[in-house]
Amino acid sequence: MAAGFISLPSELICHILLLLTPKDICHCAMTCKTVCAAARDSVHIQYKLELYAQGFTETAALDLVDFSTKMSSLKKLASLWRTDFYTKPVFEEVVGPVNNQVLSGKQHVKCGLWWTMANSNLCIRDCNANGKLSQTWSTHSLTTGGRFLKSVIVDPLQDLLIIVSSLSFIVIDAVQDYQVFMVEFRLASSNLPHPDSACAFLECTHTPDAPGQYASYVMDELAICGDRIVVLYRIHPAQDLFIQVIDWRKGHAKSCPTPFIPRHCSIAQRLAQTLCLDTCPC
């Protein structure tokens, strides 16, 4: 029966998923790669999950005005990147080499928006080939102070551009917190600071075990789950994995122990789903 379900067209799978609760949708996506892909590509499911992640649930006690206002806000943001699940647009982008092991060769699509790093630029393209909605930002405009660009991710539903950069650091006092990377919150449509965030950037800290010279490495793509951003990283030369859970609207972050990581979907996405569904320390 399971094999028959995943063989259905993606459009039909999405219609079935919309009948489920947000929590059930997440559980299905976590156990089936096909369902995860279908849920990611459906803007309607993304609306539902985004509302759930921000604390809005469909209950009898819910203030319908608040729910309608939040839904209208999401649709307005998504209209910046017009999306239609049934369209099959074709567009061409020349992608050159990227001198960055973390960013090189990765392409992303969410809710009709495609982005990748190409020729030292962040290329954002609307899948309906609307030139007015497409953007290209130089990587030099994404970092400040000679920092190394570690990761970039876009969330069309919140017009959100997340940028992670870092520098190596020397630890003298192992009891003290040290900055491991900086996270910036910008508008994907303009590259300006995001007005919904309490701060334009946030310094994420870590307490090393011993003195020495260290460098931080982002181990997987970032995950955005409502107001939360999850970053999976390690501190070289140590091999242990750590996560930072960031509330980008309130402007604060907290380190969390790394839970058991199943093999389906991306690591950071699973961590974000787990934190959103069960308990989030932020």
Would you kindly provide a written description of the structure presented here, covering whatever features stand out?
This is F-box domain-containing protein. Keywords: Signal. It holds the Pfam family F-box-like. The relative contact order is 0.11. The model is unreliable at 58-65, 77-104 and 277-282 (pLDDT under 50). The protein is globular, with a radius of gyration of 19 Å. It has seven helices and 14 strands. It is 24% helix and 30% strand. The chain has helices at 2-6, 10-17, 22-31, 33-41, 43-53, 64-78, 267-277, and strands spanning 107-110, 113-118, 121-126, 135-138, 148-155, 160-166, 169-171, 178-187, 201-206, 212-218, 223-225, 228-236, 241-247, 252-256. The longest helix is centred in the N-terminal third of the chain and has 15 residues, at 64-78. Strand 13 (241-247) and strand 14 form a beta hairpin. Helix 5 (43-53) crosses helix 6. The chain has two domains: 2-80; 145-277. The chain is of the alpha+beta class and 282 residues long. The strands form three sheets. Strands 7, 10, 11, 12, 13 and 14 form a six-stranded antiparallel beta sheet that branches. Strands 1-2-3-4 form a four-stranded antiparallel beta sheet, with no helix packed on it.
Give a short overview.
With 282 residues, the protein is an alpha+beta fold.
What key attributes describe this structure?
282 residues, globular, 7 helices, 4-stranded antiparallel beta sheet
